[in-house]
Amino acid sequence: MSGMENSTAGKVITCKAAVAWGPGEPLVMEEILVDPPQKMEVRIKVLFTSICHTDLSAWKGENESQRAYPRIFGHEASGIVESVGEGVRDMKEGDHVIPIFNGECGECLYCKREGTNMCRDYGVNPMKKVMVSDGESRFRTKETRQPIFHFLNTSTFTEFTVVESSCVVKVDPTFPLQKMTLLSCGVSTGVGAAWNTADVKAGSSVAVFGLGAVGLAVAAGARARGASKIIGVDINPAKFAKARALGITECVNPDELETAAHEEITRLTGGGVDYSFECAGSLTALREAFLSTQLGWGLTVLLGVHPGPNMLPLHPMELFAGKQITGSVFGGFKGKTQIPRFAEECMHGAVNLDEFITHELPFEKINEAFQLLKEGKSLRCLMHL
């Protein structure tokens, strides 16, 4: 890295990026200009990136209020620090890092408080499209110098990106960066929901609605905590083999049932599960997840992204039966202070990260990777830059 740092630090870098020009349009591999990092920013050479369902829904333009083009999507990645801006003290050129969409400044009211991983200025914000320090983008098209918008504090579908230092986590350089990519979002979000948000207990029962990467990360987290029964719910039975490998003990396909999914889960558990997790972004699934929990203490954790205007499918009186419902962002992890330890636990076998990488492609084939996820054929397709 040292040669690259000396030659590029403080300069504009020309590189390739997969640019979105409109909702649902194929990403275009463009030559772009990436400005140097400004105060409290980090410029990263991205080595690996992958696609999450949040990227997919944003690419489709499902929420019109979040549309902004041209834009560089992507929020799961790993790479090496190319240079740092003024004031950055906890990272230096050559460090191995992952960007995180839900940052931690360490100074605000939320960061200083235990029990929450919100951050006033650098928390997840799908509306944000420029940098905090000056309201400008660090990306421009090479030909016309047109600004290109940022996405989810990260923008990883590019060979170089600029990220606020609050949204960059340094990881042990002996850990494989391929696997660390998964901790940027999916695995951290799912495992953390089981460990931090729900605090799943040994011997408990769990239902996971939606068996994508996040749902299976929940299952892996619940298995690591010693849950005795983990029921996976999905309408795509092709996912069941992988689900069982990651900790699901029983699979339920609602389309093949004569009763509602929650009734089948109640039957299987003799009253309902202790914890349910909604990972599908479906109000129907959320309703079923809530109904599938045990009266008196059942907890439902919401992880799915719901871009539409519809509200929770609950009657207020249903909460009088002792059940609870809560949301979880980034698995409840405070990114900069807790993810390095989580990475260490994964490397020591708490979670098998290899199980989540189902495909690998070169960065230039990013549209193929999107199609794999869209068709439900991949958990994570790792792209090499």
UniProtKB/TrEMBL annotation:
<dbReference type="InterPro" id="IPR013154">
    <property type="entry name" value="ADH-like_N"/>
</dbReference>
<dbReference type="InterPro" id="IPR011032">
    <property type="entry name" value="GroES-like_sf"/>
</dbReference>
<dbReference type="GO" id="GO:0008270">
    <property type="term" value="F:zinc ion binding"/>
</dbReference>
<dbReference type="InterPro" id="IPR036291">
    <property type="entry name" value="NAD(P)-bd_dom_sf"/>
</dbReference>
<comment type="similarity">
    <text>Belongs to the zinc-containing alcohol dehydrogenase family. Class-III subfamily.</text>
</comment>
<dbReference type="GO" id="GO:0004022">
    <property type="term" value="F:alcohol dehydrogenase (NAD+) activity"/>
</dbReference>
<keyword id="KW-0479">Metal-binding</keyword>
<keyword id="KW-0560">Oxidoreductase</keyword>
<dbReference type="InterPro" id="IPR013149">
    <property type="entry name" value="ADH-like_C"/>
</dbReference>
<keyword id="KW-0862">Zinc</keyword>
<dbReference type="GO" id="GO:0046294">
    <property type="term" value="P:formaldehyde catabolic process"/>
</dbReference>
<dbReference type="GO" id="GO:0005829">
    <property type="term" value="C:cytosol"/>
</dbReference>
<dbReference type="GO" id="GO:0051903">
    <property type="term" value="F:S-(hydroxymethyl)glutathione dehydrogenase [NAD(P)+] activity"/>
</dbReference>
<dbReference type="InterPro" id="IPR002328">
    <property type="entry name" value="ADH_Zn_CS"/>
</dbReference>
<dbReference type="Pfam" id="PF08240">
    <property type="entry name" value="ADH_N"/>
</dbReference>
<feature type="domain" description="Alcohol dehydrogenase-like N-terminal">
    <location>
        <begin position="39"/>
        <end position="170"/>
    </location>
</feature>
<dbReference type="Pfam" id="PF00107">
    <property type="entry name" value="ADH_zinc_N"/>
</dbReference>
<feature type="domain" description="Alcohol dehydrogenase-like C-terminal">
    <location>
        <begin position="213"/>
        <end position="336"/>
    </location>
</feature>
<keyword id="KW-0520">NAD</keyword>
<protein>
    <recommendedName>
        <fullName>alcohol dehydrogenase</fullName>
        <ecNumber>1.1.1.1</ecNumber>
    </recommendedName>
</protein>
<comment type="subunit">
    <text>Homodimer.</text>
</comment>
